């Protein structure tokens, strides 16, 4: 795991680390279990201020439905992340389930 990932893990223990792609890391938070749709928060790796730069819905009523809820990213960056989520949807959804159960997740590289 990269230095960034190790640092991020130590600082954000309550977050479920789902996946990373290029310069972004996707996470979910246990409190998100109360929301009506599953989603991921996108953080920029190595960012000085570690705040979410996007929130992306991944389902609607249990079916795959990927939509950008909010984002500070460029169209190109949004497309990159949405395509990766689409390609690895089952993995990300399973990782969210583990987080909501209070189980540990293993950070996966979905940029391949």
Shape: globular
Q: How many beta-strand runs?
A: 6
Distance between the ends: 16 Å
Count of separate DSSP helical elements: 3
How much helicity do the residues have?
A: 25-40%
Instruction: Compute the CA-based radius of gyration.
Output: 13 Å
| SSE arrangement, N to C | HEEEEEHHE
Number of domains: 1
By secondary-structure content and strand pairing, the structural class works out as: alpha+beta
Proportion of residues in extended strands = 25-35%
Residue runs with pLDDT of under 50 for 5 or more positions = 1-13
Task: Summarize the main sheet.
Answer: 6 strands, mixed
Across the major sheet, the strand order is 5-4-3-2-1-6
Q: What is the typical, i.e. mean, pLDDT?
A: 83
Describe the structure.
The chain is α+β, with helices and mostly antiparallel strands and 112 residues long. It has one domain (3-107). It is built from 3 helices and 6 strands; from the N terminus they run αβββββααβ. The protein has helices spanning 3-11, 75-87, 89-100, and strands at residues 16-21, 24-28, 39-44, 54-60, 63-71, 108-109. The chain has a 6-stranded mixed sheet, covered by helices on one side. A hairpin with a 2-residue loop joins β1 and β2 (24-28).
SSE layout:
Elements: H1 3-11, E1 16-21, E2 24-28, E3 39-44, E4 54-60, E5 63-71, H2 75-87, H3 89-100, E6 108-109
Parallel strand pairs: 1-6
Antiparallel strand pairs: 1-2, 2-3, 3-4, 4-5
């Amino acid at each position: 795991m990269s230095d960034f990932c190790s640092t991020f893990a130590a600082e954000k223990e309550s977050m479920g680390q789902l996946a990373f792609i290029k310069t972004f890391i996707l996470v979910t938070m246990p409190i998100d279990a109360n929301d009506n749709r599953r989603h991921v928060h996108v953080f920029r790796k190595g960012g000085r201020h570690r705040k979410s730069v996007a929130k992306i819905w991944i389902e609607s009523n249990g079916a795959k439905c990927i939509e950008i809820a909010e984002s500070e990213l460029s169209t190109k960056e949004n497309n990159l992340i949405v395509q990766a989520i689409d390609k690895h949807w089952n993995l990300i959804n399973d990782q969210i389930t583990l987080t909501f159960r209070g189980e540990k997740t293993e950070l996966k590289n979905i940029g391949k």
